[in-house]
Amino acid sequence: MSSELQITTRAQNHVLTNANVWSFDSSSIVYDGRSDAAGSQFDGTQIERVDVRTNEVVTLYESSDGACVGVVTCSPTDDRIVFIHGPEKPTPDWSYNAWHRDGTIVAGNKVMPLDARDIVVPFTPGALRGGSHVHMFDAAGDWISFTYEDHLLAQLDPDDPAHDGNQRNVGVSAPLRGVTVPHTHPRNRDGGYFTVLATRTTSRPIPGSDEIVKACEEGWINYQRPDGSRQRHALAFQGTVLAESGKPVVEVFIVELPDDLTIAGDGPLEGTATRRPAPPRGTVQRRLTFTADRQHPGLQGPRHWLRSSPDGGRIAFLMKDDAGNLQIWTVSPHGSEPTQVSRHPWDIASAFTWSPDGRSIAHVMDHSVFITDVATGEGRRLTPRTPDETSPRPEACVYSPDGNWIAFVRSLPAINGRQNQIFIVPAVR
Predict the structure, then answer these.
(1) How many whole angstroms separate alpha carbon 429 and alpha carbon 418?
(2) What is the pLDDT of residue 10?
(3) 315 in Cβ contact with 252 (< 8 Å)
(4) 272 burial class (0-12, 13-18, 19+ CB within 10 angstroms)?
(5) Which 3 state secondary structure label does DSSP give 373?
(6) With a threshold of 0.90, does the pTM exceed it?
(7) Please, is 90 exposed, middle or buried when counting C-beta atoms within 10 Å of its C-beta (0-12, 13-18, 19+)?
(8) pLDDT digit string, tens, across residues 205-226
(9) E strands along 3-142, which residues?
(10) Between the ranges 7-16, 38-47, 79-88, where is the mean pLDDT highest?
């Protein structure tokens, strides 16, 4: 086993996002200061960076006016970061929740709102009407994905068939142009990127169909089409369908996006007062897995985001095998029977990431950090097995861009109870 290193020691909590927490040059890690990633309180006020060589900590952003921030990720190509920003000067009718949050980009001393918001008719193309969450740069460092919920639809009766209900979806922001909105509401805001909804959900899906009620936990994928060309902008995501029995089942979906997000498809990009925003013209949403008839149907396990192999050929997810053990599986972006990768005697216990060379996947299992060899399915334990209270946490197990290190979090005893601290462990012998 390798020797792990504790990177943070300050008397506060440190929370890692599930991927993209390393700087592009693998020299530092970004994190937020929420009291606990698994808690219901979004209460962090600082975004920080720690140098893994010197343990020097730098504050990259500090919120003001009662706002909280968190869930920070890095660009894979430069020093930009993006994170969730909660409402400034929150009020009882506009406090932090799934549809009252947005993204903020920081590059050095420059701070820029990511996604525009317009909640007053007539709405603005390129702006949405709610909250974005868990922002991830694509591999080129250009487009940013996120999950989304809609403020306007959240105010309506979800059982009324006259309008759409508020459902979790996946959205995309692209640096095509900035978006300026009318300041007809105090919570309207301009955005630096053009933002659209990428997925399509329905409040009343037909059992046994490919219609979904929820889209979430997405991951970028850049893959080769059958004709040899590349699909540059696509997202794999978890979509909840109804089996023929009416039981919800979570399946793997993919949505392919056009290069130009500014052209409306079969509905307005900005939505209407009763309908959610529609994806751009040329968007194609496809279902990749059909698991309702398995002994243990659907994706399961700890909260995890779908992650593509670096070459785009395989999408990894968690699902139980016939014995009921939670394992790593993959599926082709073109659709196929899922392939079982791991056959461990223990359940996979965390979100996961691929190594940059695509040969292994890092994750938590049996109270330790492991890497699983994708070709053989064999696991290698990197950290000693520890008691429950100090085991690596399930939210993050993240390869560095150079493939040399894996970052994770442990909960350690502290003067005022327990605190989450960041560790790294060598990924190579």
Answers:
(1) 31
(2) 81
(3) yes
(4) middle
(5) strand
(6) yes
(7) middle
(8) 999 999 999 999 999 999 988 8
(9) 5-6, 28-32, 46-51, 57-62, 69-74, 81-85, 102-107, 110-113, 116-117, 127-128, 130-137
(10) 79-88
